[in-house]
Write a structure and sequence with these properties.
It contains 14 helices and 12 strands. The protein has helices at about 5-10, 15-20, 50-60, 85-90, 120-130, 135-140, 180-190, 200-210, 220-225, 250-255, 260-295, 305-320, 325-350, 350-360; strands at about 25-30, 30-40, 65-70, 95, 145-155, 160, 175-180, 195, 215, 235, 245-250, 300.
């Protein structure tokens, strides 16, 4: 899912541009400081918007009010996709969003959210925290006067909703599917007609036949959008976003002006939300999938290895092109790819092997 498309409609609010001019630097009074945080999410949007609010509340509570983070949803002060510029230029102090929204600034930002056939949520945490990813992220975002922190994850996403079964690559030929960004480019290379639609237009487009298929996030958010009402084939796994990391970005000048203890507090609150959102998505997705299958009659299907193999090859081409933009992009790409190569053998004999073992038909519950 590229959530930015859903947000376009919500973010273009009347007077947003004028409201942006009212933003100011952090208010400092009696040793207390207010930080204005803009987001790319509609107000109260499940998982994404509520997670951003939870992060803001954590910082406020953990600092005992010394730092107050006031959240502004998409369009309340600036349009969603202007959040990065607002923080970069200092008219806002923080943002909560997804780094691949800023690929127009530099394509390597994709690596700090998700790339097709890339790293899972756990592996993203490992690369950023212990594989040199944070240092590279700091180098990239510093060029835009921003400090980035991991602050949420949706986990591996679903492969999408289809009005027919996908049994071979031929079934993708001419298929009109809503999938923006790098994932959409991958599908174009195997013959699909990938298009971009804001979230609010997906359901009516499926209903009218304007599109044949779509992806969004996963069972929790997909159930809320009601896709099961117009199509029943629900495919797994999602190749395009295997572990979508969300981010809190802080204006670099603001970040440098904070005390070491305040920086640590914000880092730990972001780390906490990164873990909590991932846990919430896993819990909610499991319950929602059960509802989709057993209440609404959705038919779960797995992509064949032949289809996934072709998608994987196209993904490698597309991701490699992202790493060709400049020397810094190449450095980030090489770090990411090398980490991916190194982590796959262990994943094969650890989590993947355990999941396969747990699915064997032995009796476990009473």
């Amino acid at each position: 899912m590229k959530r930015r498309d859903f947000l376009k409609g919500a973010s273009i609010a009347a007077g947003a541009a004028a409201a942006a001019s009212t933003l100011s630097a952090p208010a400092i009074a009696s040793g207390k400081r207010e930080l204005k945080m803009v987001t790319t999410w509609p107000k109260g949007f499940p998982g994404l918007g509520t997670g951003a609010q939870r992060f803001a509340d954590k910082v406020t509570k953990a600092s005992d009010g010394q730092l107050t983070v006031k959240l502004y949803a998409a369009g309340e002060l600036v349009p969603a996709l202007e959040s990065f510029d607002a923080v970069s230029q200092g008219s806002a102090d923080m943002y909560h969003g997804a780094e691949y929204y800023w690929q127009g600034k530099h394509k390597a930002f994709n690596f700090f959210t998700a790339v097709p056939m890339g790293l899972t949520a756990n592996e993203m945490d490992a690369w950023v925290q212990h594989g040199g990813g944070q240092e590279l992220w700091d180098e990239l975002s510093a060029e835009f006067n921003v400090k980035g922190l991991m602050c949420g994850n949706t986990g591996v996403q679903m492969g999408g909703w289809f009005n027919k079964e996908i049994n071979s690559l031929e079934d993708y030929k001419g298929l009109k599917i809503r999938m923006p960004g790098l994932g959409g480019e991958v599908l174009r290379r195997i013959g699909a007609s990938a298009i971009t639609l804001p979230g609010g237009e997906i359901f009516p487009s499926l209903q009218s036949g304007a599109i044949d298929a779509t992806e969004w996030v996963g069972p929790w958010n997909d159930l809320a959008f009601g896709f099961y009402k117009v199509t029943k084939y629900y495919y797994w796994p999602g190749f395009h976003e295997p572990g979508s990391t969300l981010a809190a970005g802080v204006n670099k000048g603001v970040w440098d002006s904070l005390t070491p203890s305040q920086q640590t507090l914000i880092q730990e609150c972001a780390r906490s939300e990164n873990n909590e959102m991932y846990a919430e998505y896993n819990a909610r997705n499991a319950a929602a999938l059960d509802t989709l299958l057993n209440k609404h009659g959705v038919q779960l299907r797995q992509f064949s290895n032949d289809v996934l193999n072709a998608i994987g090859g196209a993904s490698g081409e597309v991701v490699g092109e992202v790493g060709d933009v400049d020397p810094l992009g190449a450095k980030i790409y090489n770090s990411f790819i090398n980490f991916r190569k190194n982590v796959i053998p262990y994943a094969k004999i650890s989590e993947r092997a355990y999941a396969d073992a747990r699915n064997l038909p032995f009796k476990y519950s009473k």
